[in-house]
Specification:
This protein has one domain (4-274). Helices cover 36% and strands 14% of the residues. The chain contains ten helices and nine strands. The relative contact order is 0.11. The chain binds iron/sulfur cluster. Iron/sulfur cluster binds at residues 231-232, 235, 237-238, 241, 243-246, 254, 257-258.
Length: 287
């Protein structure tokens, strides 16, 4: 599966993506959609061939449901599997390997103690991974560091582990993509439609009340962080983080997550230096 910002860029071209329950698809057929459902049957029964070109990806909210009907449906449409219990859902991942013949598959993993086990299994099964959660405690930061080293240094890791992958690319390419965008929680890119049809902020911002101007929320937050005297204003990662780890609790200490981002940035800079030296002027590429 492509890195999320590239996936979004391919699909939306500055258009909002709507994360909708499959039961409401009839009202969103003019939109770019993320379709969510408990199992594959609901997707196959409700999504028609004309919808396929407008689907960014589908989310299966439970790993216990039926899966086989997706194998010959919607060739190439990315599928995201939502893990809610890392122990219970770990063995269920094997059921989804046949999908890889016809779909990119990503596993969404919550940041809870021991999350690294399911990440490693997912990667070994050739699934991409997305890590979910914003204010990890010290033990989770340690586990994140271990998984970041696994992502950076294990040659068998061929699929992206987000948010590491897109952040690493942002450091390498020196482009200003933010964690809010990488994690699909930037309301100027993604909106969440509740099961009752209400439009809400995405991801961890779901409880934030906004009037009409969803996009202004992120701009206001960025201006506020830059102006105030807090940890973010002096942070070397502000351009990419934009206060992501200060949500929802401003008092959260970012020492651990800054060290994590530094690990990714150092690896990206090392790769830049290697590539630059390889292609330095006058250097013969012949052995
Ligand atoms: S890492 Fe923490 S201090 Fe730095 S920008 Fe992000 S939330 Fe703010």
């Amino acid at each position: 599966m492509k890195p999320v910002p590239e996936m979004i860029a391919d699909n939306v071209m500055n258009t909002i993506i709507y994360n909708i329950p499959v039961s409401l698809i009839a009202g969103f057929r003019e939109r770019i959609m993320i379709i969510r459902a408990d199992d594959a049957t609901a997707i196959v029964e409700n999504v028609n061939d004309q919808d396929l070109g407008r689907i960014s990806f589908i989310k299966l909210l439970s790993l216990k449901g039926e899966v086989s009907s997706l194998i010959n449906w919607g060739q190439g449409i990315p599928v995201e599997l939502i893990v809610s219990d890392t122990n219970r859902d770990l063995p269920l991942l094997y059921r989804y390997t046949p999908l890889l013949a016809s779909h990119p598959v990503r596993v969404s993993v919550p940041l809870v103690a021991g999350f690294g086990n399911i990440v490693k299994l997912a990667v070994s099964l050739n699934f991409a991974v997305k890590l979910e959660g914003g204010q990890p405690d010290a033990s989770l930061v340690d586990e994140l560091q271990r998984i970041a080293h696994f992502y950076l240094h294990q040659t068998m890791v061929s699929e992206p582990i987000e948010f590491f992958h897109s952040l690493f690319l942002a450091f390498y390419r020196r482009n200003p993509v933010t964690l809010w965008a990488i994690q699909e929680e930037d309301p100027s890119l993604v909106r969440y439609i509740t099961d009752s049809g209400e439009e809400r902020m995405p991801g961890r911002l779901a409880g934030v009340e906004v009037n009409e101007n969803f996009s202004a929320f992120m701009l206001d937050m960025q201006k506020g962080l830059a102006a105030e005297e807090g940890e973010c204003a002096k942070c070397e990662f502000l351009i990419h983080c934009q206060g992501y780890f200060k949500w929802p609790h401003r008092e959260y200490s970012c020492d651990g997550v800054r060290a994590l981002m530094n690990t990714l940035r150092s690896a990206a800079e090392e790769l830049r230096a290697d590539v630059a030296s390889f292609y330095s002027p006058g250097k013969s590429l012949r052995p």
